[in-house]
Design goal:
Layout (H helix, E strand, L loop, with lengths): L2 H7 L2 E5 L3 H12 L3 E5 L3 H35 L6 H10 L6 H6 L1 E4 L10 E4 L5 H11 L8 E4 L6 H5 L8 E6 L8 E6 L5 H12 L9 E4 L8 H17 L5 H11 L6 H8 L1 H15 L7 H8 L17
Parallel strand pairs: 1-2, 1-4, 2-3, 4-5, 5-6, 7-8
Antiparallel strand pairs: 6-7
Helix pairs in contact: 2-3, 3-4, 9-11, 9-12
C-alpha cells in the first residue's frame, strides 16, 4: 500500500488526552498533514494542549531561524570567508519553518467523544492508570465506526485488558510514542491478544510514511508483554543503577558519567529518571515487580524520594537538585 492510499485510509486522526504527550502526538500528525481531533475531559485542558502545540512549533521555528547564522559563524571561525551568495545558500538550506496557522487549521479541540466519530484512527494518551484507560476504551466504543483502529499510547499497561472493554477488540493495538515524539522517531506497535495483525501492520505502514521534526518515523513491532521493548530494558538499567548507588559502589554522578562516556548513553540513568519523573519510574517499576518478580525490587532510596515529594525535574528535585 503506497503512502497516498494510507493517507486516504487514515484521513482523520483522534487523540484522547491533551497533556504534554497527547498534544505532541497530535502535532506530529498535523505536521504530516492529517486532520486531527484532540480531545480531553474539558475545554480548558484541550485549550492547554493546543497552547502546548503552539509552543512546540514556536520553539522549532526559533531554532531554525538561528541555525543559518550559527552555521555561518561556525564556518567562518575555521578561517573561511563566505560570500553573500554562499550565505544565502546556507540560509535557504536551513529554511524549515512550519506555518503555524496552517498546522493549527488541521487541529480541532473538543471535550466530546462524538467529535471523534469520523476518525479512522484514535490514539488514547491519557493518564497511565489501567482503570482510566479501560474506562476510555469502554466509553469510546459507542462513537467509532467498526473499521476504525483504536490504539493506546501506554508505556507499560495491558493492551489486551483495554481491548476487553472495547466493542471490537480485533481493532485494538498499541502505538507507544516516545517523549517527545516530534524529535524521537520510535513507535512501538503491537496488537492486543484478541487483536488483528492486520490492524498493527496498517499502523506500522502508516508511520513508515511519516516524519517528525528531525527524522522519518521508525515503528517497530512487538507483543503485548508488560514494558514491551524499550521500557522493559531501560527501567531495568535505571533500577540497577540505583542498586549500584545504594551499595556505595559509585556516586550517582560517576554512574551517570560512566554510562554516558562508556556505554554511549545520551543521558545517565539518574538524569533520565529525573527527566521522566520519579513517580512514573516508581509506578512502572512497581508494575514490573508485580509481573516479573524480584528482579524489579524497588529501591528504598527511590521510595523515600517519592515520599519526600521529589519527583525529578518537574518538582525541582529528584536524584539531583534543580533549584540551584
Amino acid at each position: 500500500m503506497n503512502d497516498n492510499l494510507l493517507i486516504k485510509m487514515f484521513k482523520n486522526i483522534g487523540i484522547i488526552g491533551a497533556g504534554a504527550m497527547g498534544s505532541a502526538i497530535a502535532e506530529v500528525f498535523a505536521y504530516n498533514e492529517f486532520n486531527v481531533v484532540l480531545k480531553d475531559v474539558n475545554m480548558d485542558f484541550a485549550t492547554r494542549g493546543l497552547k502546548h502545540i503552539e509552543k512546540i512549533v514556536d520553539d522549532y521555528n526559533s531554532y531554525y531561524e538561528r541555525l543559518p547564522e550559527r552555521e555561518v559563524s561556525r564556518i567562518e571561525r575555521m578561517g573561511l570567508k563566505l560570500s553573500l551568495e554562499q550565505k544565502e545558500k546556507i540560509n535557504n538550506y536551513f529554511s524549515h519553518k512550519i506555518d503555524k496557522n496552517d498546522l493549527e487549521k488541521r487541529i480541532k479541540i473538543t471535550d466530546k467523544y462524538e467529535d471523534l466519530s469520523k476518525c479512522d484512527l484514535v490514539i488514547e494518551a491519557a493518564f497511565e492508570k489501567q482503570e482510566i484507560k479501560n474506562g476510555i476504551f469502554k466509553e469510546i466504543s459507542g462513537y467509532l465506526s467498526d473499521d476504525a483502529i483504536m490504539a493506546t499510547n501506554t508505556s507499560s499497561l495491558s493492551v489486551t485488558e483495554m481491548a476487553s472493554y472495547y466493542k471490537n477488540p480485533k481493532k485494538v493495538i498499541l502505538m507507544h510514542f516516545f517523549n517527545p515524539p516530534y524529535t524521537l522517531p520510535l513507535v512501538e506497535i503491537a496488537p492486543s491478544t484478541q487483536g488483528s495483525d492486520d490492524a498493527a501492520k496498517q499502523a506500522y505502514d502508516l508511520l513508515r510514511g511519516m516524519k517528525n521534526h528531525r527524522n522519518n518515523m521508525q515503528p517497530v513491532m512487538t507483543r503485548d508483554k508488560t514494558g514491551f521493548i524499550v521500557n522493559r530494558i531501560l527501567l531495568q538499567v535505571i533500577n540497577e543503577a540505583i542498586k549500584v548507588y545504594d551499595e556505595n559502589i559509585a556516586t550517582k554522578e560517576d554512574i551517570d558519567t560512566a554510562m554516558k562516556y562508556g556505554a554511549g548513553f545520551p543521558m545517565g540513568p539518574f538524569e533520565l529518571a529525573d527527566y521522566v519523573g520519579l513517580d512514573i519510574v516508581y509506578d512502572v517499576l512497581k508494575t514490573f515487580k508485580d509481573v516479573y518478580g524480584d528482579r524489579f525490587n524497588l529501591s528504598e532510596t527511590l521510595t523515600n524520594l517519592i515520599r519526600a515529594g521529589y519527583m525529578g525535574r518537574k518538582s525541582g528535585r529528584g536524584f539531583y537538585d534543580y533549584t540551584k
